[in-house]
């Protein structure tokens, strides 16, 4: 009786939603599977695209896992982890974003029956971590190095990697054309780590094949005043002056007060203004520069002055383009026109203004430092060009990684099947429950080849059985066999040049295992519904307080005056 009378202990605010235990973990796993189902069909060369229509009315068509995950606006706290790993894969390696989401969801799916049967999730986590370490060691062992090859050999190897990445994108039909373009661009910037040294400019119209690479900088013609028609549009080996100042006739500040005793003195003030601008322009001309670029406006007076002296000028050049011109031509951006010495002027072999579609472009090619390249993309629809840009970004990242880490593995699900076989063999040597867990991890890795088959409309069971048989050969000759998208059978991925950098796979396995372990280790979710409204109220009151305070302050100042 006494125990019934004890008061109920209230720890959390009223209305707090807590869910814990097995059901909570299973619900998190289901949420992650639902997220993976969204991007599942985008994997591989036959993957479908997603059309995402956001609240602002803008439409994005994409095949890139990370882009889709970002735009989905997921609110489920556990499923958000998958968005984060897709983003990290995108920023770290550039490709394999769909792979990483699929793997994480598949690891969880394989763990679900064990969780439901009452296995403690820490046992699962321990086995998964061990399995991922073994898998990564195996990837490193199977990887082939491309180090020590000649430049031409390296180029062809890198373009194979880029073509593999591009084959799953919208521009997959022209993958050879774009792959060689990407490799040239990456080799042009050398070992520079700054990705913004490769500019991608989009010009609607024309076909994809009209896209071209400029070994240097290209940017759209800026707004120009009357007089630019008389300027020369092509120079050989010009000197280039980069400025961050306005070359406009400025009237004196409106609130300046000048007292004149003689009206003729007024003319001297007007003349002074003109002298200032003419002085600046003379110094630009005397520096010997033939091309003058400025981040701020270059007015009509200056434009005509330069045109009379056969100098090309462009004002309001974006900062990013100006920085790239500076890096390419070896010039330095000047904030003052005084003391312009030869060292701060850049140079390039050819400068020209050229029509691209219905836009005019300024092209600087044959730059001495050569640490920059620009890809001008053409295509029909805007969405298409946007997607092409995202695809090229992935390819550029992949080629950079392959250049740096210089080891590649067989793609097309070959490496996944080989690791899966290796882990199954290894699991047999382990006594105890973890044998089952490592086996389930190995089974989860097969999701990649299976999904490749499903997306291409092949019989996945049939293809996977052939792959298992090939990979089980004792001699190890079947290690490079993966799904052959062209015929619906299996083929040697390595011989077919379906390659990807080892770092993509290593990163994907690492991130997916971490995410799966993180979700498995959560056993309770506490959701405080009041906090959201409370935060809103607090923010509103803070804003209100600030507004009121501001009002009083202003009045005080007025009174003092």
UniProtKB/TrEMBL annotation:
<dbReference type="InterPro" id="IPR012720">
    <property type="entry name" value="Chap_CCT_eta"/>
</dbReference>
<dbReference type="InterPro" id="IPR027409">
    <property type="entry name" value="GroEL-like_apical_dom_sf"/>
</dbReference>
<keyword id="KW-0143">Chaperone</keyword>
<dbReference type="GO" id="GO:0005832">
    <property type="term" value="C:chaperonin-containing T-complex"/>
</dbReference>
<comment type="subunit">
    <text>Heterooligomeric complex that forms two stacked rings.</text>
</comment>
<comment type="function">
    <text>Molecular chaperone; assists the folding of proteins upon ATP hydrolysis. Known to play a role, in vitro, in the folding of actin and tubulin.</text>
</comment>
<comment type="similarity">
    <text>Belongs to the TCP-1 chaperonin family.</text>
</comment>
<dbReference type="InterPro" id="IPR027410">
    <property type="entry name" value="TCP-1-like_intermed_sf"/>
</dbReference>
<dbReference type="InterPro" id="IPR017998">
    <property type="entry name" value="Chaperone_TCP-1"/>
</dbReference>
<keyword id="KW-0067">ATP-binding</keyword>
<dbReference type="GO" id="GO:0016887">
    <property type="term" value="F:ATP hydrolysis activity"/>
</dbReference>
<dbReference type="Pfam" id="PF00118">
    <property type="entry name" value="Cpn60_TCP1"/>
</dbReference>
<dbReference type="InterPro" id="IPR053374">
    <property type="entry name" value="TCP-1_chaperonin"/>
</dbReference>
<dbReference type="InterPro" id="IPR002423">
    <property type="entry name" value="Cpn60/GroEL/TCP-1"/>
</dbReference>
<dbReference type="InterPro" id="IPR054827">
    <property type="entry name" value="thermosome_alpha"/>
</dbReference>
<dbReference type="GO" id="GO:0140662">
    <property type="term" value="F:ATP-dependent protein folding chaperone"/>
</dbReference>
<dbReference type="GO" id="GO:0005524">
    <property type="term" value="F:ATP binding"/>
</dbReference>
<dbReference type="InterPro" id="IPR027413">
    <property type="entry name" value="GROEL-like_equatorial_sf"/>
</dbReference>
<dbReference type="GO" id="GO:0051082">
    <property type="term" value="F:unfolded protein binding"/>
</dbReference>
<keyword id="KW-0547">Nucleotide-binding</keyword>
<keyword id="KW-0963">Cytoplasm</keyword>
<dbReference type="InterPro" id="IPR002194">
    <property type="entry name" value="Chaperonin_TCP-1_CS"/>
</dbReference>
<protein>
    <recommendedName>
        <fullName>T-complex protein 1 subunit eta</fullName>
    </recommendedName>
</protein>
<feature type="compositionally biased region" description="Gly residues">
    <location>
        <begin position="544"/>
        <end position="553"/>
    </location>
</feature>
<feature type="region of interest" description="Disordered">
    <location>
        <begin position="529"/>
        <end position="561"/>
    </location>
</feature>
């Amino acid at each position: 009786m006494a125990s019934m009378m004890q008061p109920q202990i209230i720890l959390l605010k009223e209305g707090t939603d807590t869910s814990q235990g097995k059901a909570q973990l299973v619900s998190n796993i289901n949420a992650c599977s639902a997220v993976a189902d969204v991007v599942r069909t985008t994997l591989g060369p036959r993957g479908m695209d997603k059309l995402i229509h956001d609240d602002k009315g803008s439409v994005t068509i994409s095949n890139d896992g990370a882009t889709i995950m970002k735009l989905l606006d997921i609110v489920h706290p556990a499923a958000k982890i998958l968005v984060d790993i897709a983003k990290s894969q995108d920023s770290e390696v550039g490709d394999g974003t769909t792979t990483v989401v699929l793997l994480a969801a598949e690891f969880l799916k394989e763990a679900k029956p064990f969780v439901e049967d009452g296995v403690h999730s820490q046992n699962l986590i321990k086995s998964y971590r061990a399995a991922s370490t073994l898998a990564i060691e195996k990837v490193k062992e199977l990887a082939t190095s491309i180090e020590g090859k000649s430049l031409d050999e390296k180029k062809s190897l890198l373009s194979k990697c880029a073509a593999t990445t591009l084959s799953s994108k919208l521009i997959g039909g022209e993958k050879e054309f774009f792959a060689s373009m990407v490799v040239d661009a990456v080799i042009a910037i050398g070992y520079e780590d700054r990705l913004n040294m490769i500019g991608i400019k989009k010009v609607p119209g024309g076909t994809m094949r009209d896209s071209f690479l400029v070994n240097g900088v290209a940017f759209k013609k800026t707004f120009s005043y009357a007089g630019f028609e008389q300027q020369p549009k092509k120079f050989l080996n010009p000197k280039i002056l980069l400025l961050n100042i306005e070359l406009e006739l400025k009237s004196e500040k409106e609130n300046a007060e000048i007292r004149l005793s003689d009206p003729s003195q007024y003319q001297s003030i007007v003349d002074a203004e003109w002298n200032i601008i003419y002085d600046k322009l003379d110094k630009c001309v005397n520096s010997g520069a033939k091309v003058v670029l400025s981040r701020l406006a270059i007015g009509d007076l200056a434009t005509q002055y330069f045109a009379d002296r056969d100098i090309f000028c462009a004002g309001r050049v974006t900062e990013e383009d100006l920085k790239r011109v500076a890096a390419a031509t070896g010039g330095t951006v000047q904030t003052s026109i005084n003391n312009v010495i030869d060292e701060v002027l850049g140079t390039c072999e050819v400068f020209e203004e050229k029509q691209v579609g219905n836009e005019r472009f300024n092209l600087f090619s044959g730059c001495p430092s050569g640490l920059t390249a620009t890809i001008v993309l053409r295509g029909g629809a805007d969405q298409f060009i946007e997607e092409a840009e995202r695809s090229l970004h992935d390819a550029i990242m992949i080629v950079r990684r392959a250049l740096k880490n210089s080891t590649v593995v067989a793609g097309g699900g070959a490496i996944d099947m080989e690791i899966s076989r290796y882990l199954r063999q290894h699991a047999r040597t382990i006594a105890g429950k973890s044998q089952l867990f490592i086996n389930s991890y190995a089974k989860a890795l097969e999701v990649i080849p299976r999904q490749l088959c499903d997306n291409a409309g092949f019989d996945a069971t049939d293809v996977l059985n052939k792959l298992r048989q090939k990979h089980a050969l004792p001699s190890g000759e079947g290690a490079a066999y993966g799904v052959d998208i062209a015929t619906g059978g299996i083929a040697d991925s390595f011989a077919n040049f379906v390659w990807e950098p080892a770092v993509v796979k290593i990163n994907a396995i690492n991130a997916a295992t971490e995410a799966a372990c993180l979700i498995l280790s959560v056993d309770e979710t506490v959701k405080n519904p009041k906090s959201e409204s409370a935060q809103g109220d607090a923010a509103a009151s803070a804003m209100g307080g600030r507004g009121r305070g501001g009002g009083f302050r202003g009045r005080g100042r007025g009174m003092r005056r």
